[in-house]
Amino acid sequence: TCKTFFDYAYKLLAHWPREDGEIIWASERDGWNHLYLYDAKTGKVKNQITKGKWLVRGVDRIDDKKRQIWFHAGGIIPGQDPYHIHFARINFDGTGLTLLTEGDGTHRIDYSPDKDKKYFIDNWSRVDDPGRTELRRSSDGKLVCVLETADITALKATGWKSPERFTAKARDGKTDIWGVIYR
Asked: Which helix H or strand E contains 154, and what residues bound it?
């Protein structure tokens, strides 16, 4: 039970990491969609894995041996549009949160095909900024090199104007509402 609206669409997760009686479960019990580690025998929360005023949008992979989770989230970088998707990694015990993407936009990543997935290609953009493709290290998210940046010079020469991003306060006077204006 919670005081706010909650939505489980596309956010369900139940993962049994090993045969040690633990379950990783996605829940909105604190008002945000986060991951929790449960004791499967008692049904009690061992610890909240992710926490904060942001939400886990999905889990991309789980390494049971290293006890780490790779996931994508919205609103995880303060000051950026909370609808933008970023990627991160965290340990089962809630320590070691590592942001793997940083550019102000929505990211889509593809891990390298090696066994350890040491690198990933990060394609990201937003409505008012051309896209970029970067090579990054999976261990810490550090930029290895920029592979490509979109050139929209020809598009702008046609008179095209990019959409305008904006924020405004909600009726409560505190909550930021993010939007886009197309002219």
From this structure: helix 153-157
